[in-house]
Amino acid sequence: MGLFMIIFTLIGGITLSAQSSINGTFSRKAGTIETTLLTFLTGTMFLTIFILFFGSGNILALLEAPKWQLSAAFLGTMYLLFTVIAVPRIGVIATNIAGIAGQLVIGLIIDHFGWFNSLVIELDIKRVFALLFMVISLYFIYKGNKRTSDDTVA
User: What is the number of alpha carbons within 13 Å of residue 34 lying toward its C-beta?
Assistant: First the structure.
């Protein structure tokens, strides 16, 4: 099951990168906020159909959730908006690595302190090195992108 979840998430990452690239290009014509809106409207329609045919939860439970848990929807919207803004300026890979580095930073903090009822996983040297390598890769990717764009302009 673990390998299946890794493959499943890997495919999710592939679709996210494709979406980032397409949205970044589309935002030049339609606008950043408009592109983000289109993504969420399409997602809403798609998920409404999925809920109608495959949903087994209780949609009304959203009304009973603690307000702080509803902030996740806003955070997801902000992530998509920031991605749509960043891709045309720094490229898909730099945008995605920066996003992953941000996820690692907050993930390490959440795990270490057990925030949001998560598992407590102590910060260790392996995790610190993982973050360090991610930041180093972001540096090299960004510098490579910048040099390539400078060469193109010249």
Answer: 7
